[in-house]
Specification:
Order of helices and strands: HHH
Strand content: under 5%
Largest sheet: none
Shape: flat
Number of helices: 3
Helix content: 40-55%
Number of strands: 0
Amino acid sequence: MNSKVILTASLVAVFVIGTFGASSIAFAQYMGNVGSQGETGSYTLEEALEIQKRRVDAAAANPASGSGTPYLDASGVGGAAIVSAAVFGGISAAFFIKGRSGKYAAMGRG
């Protein structure tokens, strides 16, 4: 393909993504209507804190369920390091073995 076409297409993509990315809007969490005396409507800050405290207490009471349970626990950080080292070591060993033979391998090395 022509390099000018690729360059033009990539520049257009960057500008289009930038245009749509800049138009996104972030909203703060809605906590209810504020009255004339400063009170809020339903779901006040105190109610929200109480609900979150109950969620934390429920998660602490039953640690085997809920969000935050690691998928590949393997008995902690050490086990996870061993599992990941075995996986990535196996992949690198396969690449190393496949790289020693083949069409582009150097002559006389196997």
